[in-house]
Amino acid sequence: MRPSGRSPDSLRPIRLEPGYARHAEGSCLACFGDTHVLCTATVEERVPSWMRGSGKGWITAEYGMLPRSTHTRTEREATRGRQSGRTQEIQRLIGRSLRAVTDLKALGEMQIRLDCDVLQADGGTRTAAITGSWIALQQAIARVRGSALPGRSALTDHVAAVSCGLVDGVAVLDLDYAEDSAAQADANFVLTGRGGIVEIQGTAETTPFSTDQFQALLGLAQHGITQLIAAQKEALGLGETP
């Protein structure tokens, strides 16, 4: 039995609340169980200098954890004067994931910044950030489409992310902290609505895992992503297209 009482193929309770931040062009509070991440999207009428004149837009992300998002207080990275390697890796992952489902040419020469702030952490903060950021991005694009974007949507598909792992030899979906800290192997899957693979991050914590075990994890991830994308659509009242 999992600590949460869930079956191996069950997600934690998922809540995606769009429009959570009053001032941002797009926002979403993404809750995966006790992991809560606030995702906001800011539209800027400029692109990085290396993209000027390209006719393309850009999407980038920043990620951070509030000091008491965990059991003990973590010093702010701004106080230390530098970001950790983990923070840099996660925010690059978020940016790559959202760019993978965005037509940057259709976006036009503007930049959308996604800020993902972890309010409360219980495992899977990066997967919640990616899933919530898609909603924030969709809102931001929809908000400026009439004046600043071409008539067609710049989003080409949904994208969401979920973790899976081997706990006591059993493949399970959507790890919370108790499972993540005890897993023999864990992986983060970033998949699109049409089933495309954006990124897979997998690590054996003890002994190597087999191809069959990886296939079991992938199958669970696909099952979970289908539900997460359905939750995105429900949150925004969308049909079958972004």
TrEMBL record:
For this UniProt entry, the molecular function terms from Gene Ontology, in alphabetical order, are: 3'-5'-RNA exonuclease activity; tRNA binding; tRNA nucleotidyltransferase activity
Every Exoribonuclease phosphorolytic domain range: 11-140, 159-222
| List of residues binding phosphate | R86, G124, T125, R126
Source superkingdom? Bacteria
> Record's Pfam families?
RNase_PH, RNase_PH_C
The UniProt function text for this chain reads: Phosphorolytic 3'-5' exoribonuclease that plays an important role in tRNA 3'-end maturation. Removes nucleotide residues following the 3'-CCA terminus of tRNAs; can also add nucleotides to the ends of RNA molecules by using nucleoside diphosphates as substrates, but this may not be physiologically important. Probably plays a role in initiation of 16S rRNA degradation (leading to ribosome degradation) during starvation.
UniProt lists the family membership as follows: Belongs to the RNase PH family.
Tell me the subunit arrangement: Homohexameric ring arranged as a trimer of dimers.
What name appears for this protein in its UniProt entry?
Answer: Ribonuclease PH
Protein species of origin: Pararhodospirillum oryzae
Q: What's the encoding gene here?
A: rph
